[in-house]
Amino acid sequence: PKEKLKKAKGIEVGHIFYFGKKYSEPMKLSVSNEKGNSVTLEMGSYGIGVSRLPAAIIEVNHDDAGIIWPDSVSPFQVGLINLDPSDKKTNEASDSFYTKLRENNIDVLYDNSEERPGVKFANMDLIGLPWQITVGKKTLSNNNIDLKRRFDGKRQEMSLDSALDLISK
Q: 142 and 125 in one domain?
């Protein structure tokens, strides 16, 4: 019923066009119907606007900090943040964790830049990967990492193996 319709903004991600005989008549395209008579084809087309899909996904999956990519379409599964690349232990652990993640077929965006931690966290939230692993002196002192789920922002300190189990589910 028309009274139940709501007017809202949207984005076109797919389309269907009915052309009728607009193109088939000038091209003299016809087929034989079930009675053997020649009839002009009626045409249509449909498609998905692949380049529009990321915008539609982001429109639905974001917050004030940035994108929140669904697992199924995220460009990487994990953002790995090395809090202090100048610290030998943190750097070696981060590199080792990166290798272990890749060995487990997990796509990783590795931030080993010299930026301040707050900038790194903000960048990872902006990019919106499903999981963030932070490697720093504090968590390493317990042989752990910090795991954050971007969707709900929950952080947990745990071993990398425990994090791998969660990420792989």
A: yes
* C-alpha pair distances (Å), 71 with each of 9, 75, 77, 151: 26, 9, 7, 10
* Same domain (yes/no): 52, 76: no
Domain that holds residue 37: 11-60
Q: To which residue do tokens 């963030």 refer?
A: 132
**pTM confidence score:** 0.79
Does 90 share its domain with 141? Answer: yes
Quickly count: other Cβ atoms within 10 Å of residue 54's Cβ.
Answer: 13
Q: Euclidean distance between the first and final Cα of the chain, in Å?
A: 42
pLDDT per position as a tens digit, 50-91 = 999 999 999 999 999 999 999 999 999 999 999 999 999 999
Count H helices, E strands: the chain?
A: 5, 11
Distance CA 117, CA 136 (A): 10
